[in-house]
Every structure is written in structure tokens, then in C-alpha cells.
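stage 2 :: seqdesign
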């Protein structure tokens, strides 16, 4: 399908810029590509792909431009909108498993036609009103549910995350730079219960364990995978390169650059 004039557009509330998916959203990629990693599984999204990003999942993604352009359509299916939808349509959801972070939708003529129908509202100076945006979101949601009835259990599950295995979850997701409050939420615990359970499981505090685990992972990537410090520090959960270098030297007695240089020199 060729969509002539639509560029990046967004219907619904803004999506969190952090590393977690706060609300379900529909993504259609127009130009460029995207790779995502959720701590366990990698996803590649290319032009023409339709997918749903699932809320309450941690994801790190990288965008790749095509001729200096990255264009997409994002339609947020937030909880408030979904609850209003249920007031008008009789759907009943069963509890769903955690599952994949992205659900890919097979090519579908109805979705293609829906994407094309957005074009008049995203060209020139035309803007879509909030009321009409909800109508278009409802239209898309009806199409998605017709295409895949199993989405009912995923989209209309409003329960909080249930308590899961702490050790397994943290070993999978320690690279994500989120707050302890978020880690507690995603593991189905209050912050105080999370800290108490963490001490029992790991024998130390979350802050100490996270720093050590991230530094060990950084050392592995530098020494065994010949990565550069500038490529590693964000991936293992540090926000600042200088803070990463300071903590790394304190832990191992050498700076990240010194380790990388030793490896490149075959020492």
C-alpha cells in the first residue's frame, strides 16, 4: 500500500519517553526501521508492519532513519479510552499471560484502508479534533478485534501486574534504567515489600546489586565482545558516561577505556 502524504502522526495521549510501555499502542511504520529488545526477545519493525506494543513491558528500542526520515503512525489505546469503549461494546476479557512485548498484526485490507483514511487529516494545515480522534481510534479498535479476537484478553485486562518471581525478573531486566518503584510495580509488589523480598532473594539491597550487576555486564561486553565504553554504558543502565567510568574504576581498578584498550591490543 502506498500512503502518499501521511507523515508521522499520533492519536491519543502522549507515550512515555521512558523505557517502559505505560499504555497499549498501535504502531504502523511508514519510513525507516526500528529494533526493540525487552530483556529477553528482540523485535525488528520495518515499513508496512502493523503491531501493538503492550503496556507494562520494559523495552529498549533503536530507530534507523531512511534518507534522514523516520515516519510512523502511533495510536494510543490507553486504559481510559478502552473503558469508554467497553461502555458501548460488549466484550469480556479473561486474564492474559505476560507474553511478547509486541504483537504483530497480519496484513489486513481493513487496516490498510483505515491508514489511508487518515491521510486527509495529516496533510496541509488540517488538524484532527479530539472528538474525531476518538472516533478514529474506535474504528481501528473494532478492526483489530475483528482481525484477532484474542486481543480482547490483552487490551481489556486492567488488573495490576501480579506477583512474579523476583530473581528471574531482575536477572532479565537489570539493564533497564528505571526507578525501584517501577521495578516493584512490575513485579507485583509495593516498594517496601519489593525491598524486603529483594534482600531475602539476593542478600543485599537493590541499589547495590543493580550497580554491581550492571558493571559486571559492562566488563563482559568490553572484554569479551570488544565493545566501546560509549556503546555500553547506556545499554547496561547508566545515564552518564563519566559516572559509569568512575563506578567502573572503583569496582575493577581500571577505567572502561583501559579495559577496552587492553583487549584491542591483545593483552
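stage 2 :: out
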Amino acid at each position: 500500500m502506498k500512503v502518499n502524504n501521511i507523515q508521522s502522526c499520533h492519536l491519543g495521549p502522549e507515550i512515555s519517553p521512558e523505557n517502559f510501555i505505560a499504555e497499549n499502542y498501535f504502531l504502523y511504520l511508514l519510513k525507516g526501521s526500528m529494533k526493540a529488545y525487552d530483556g529477553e526477545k528482540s523485535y525488528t519493525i520495518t515499513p508496512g508492519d502493523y503491531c501493538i506494543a503492550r503496556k507494562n513491558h520494559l523495552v529498549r528500542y533503536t530507530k534507523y532513519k531512511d534518507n534522514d526520515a523516520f515516519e510512523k503512525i502511533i495510536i494510543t489505546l490507553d486504559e481510559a479510552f478502552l473503558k469508554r469503549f467497553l461502555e458501548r461494546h460488549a466484550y469480556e476479557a479473561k486474564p492474559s499471560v505476560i507474553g511478547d512485548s509486541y504483537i504483530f498484526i497480519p496484513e489486513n485490507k481493513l487496516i490498510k484502508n483505515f491508514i489511508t483514511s487518515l491521510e486527509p487529516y495529516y496533510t496541509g494545515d488540517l488538524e484532527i479534533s479530539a472528538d474525531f480522534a476518538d472516533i478514529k481510534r474506535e474504528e481501528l479498535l473494532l478492526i483489530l478485534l475483528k482481525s484477532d479476537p484474542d486481543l480482547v484478553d490483552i487490551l481489556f485486562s486492567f488488573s495490576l501486574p501480579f506477583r512474579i518471581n523476583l530473581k528471574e525478573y531482575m536477572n532479565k531486566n537489570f539493564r533497564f534504567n528505571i526507578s525501584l518503584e517501577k521495578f516493584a510495580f512490575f513485579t507485583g509488589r509495593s516498594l517496601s515489600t519489593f525491598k524486603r523480598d529483594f534482600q531475602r532473594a539476593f542478600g543485599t539491597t537493590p541499589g547495590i546489586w543493580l550497580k554491581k550487576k550492571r558493571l559486571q555486564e559492562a566488563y563482559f561486553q568490553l572484554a569479551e565482545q570488544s565493545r566501546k565504553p560509549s556503546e555500553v554504558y547506556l545499554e547496561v543502565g547508566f545515564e552518564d558516561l563519566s559516572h559509569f567510568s568512575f563506578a567502573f574504576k572503583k569496582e575493577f581498578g581500571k577505567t572502561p577505556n583501559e579495559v577496552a584498550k587492553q583487549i584491542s591490543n591483545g593483552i
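stage 3 :: structure notes
- The chain is about 40% helix and 15% strand.
- The chain has two domains: 9-155, 166-264.
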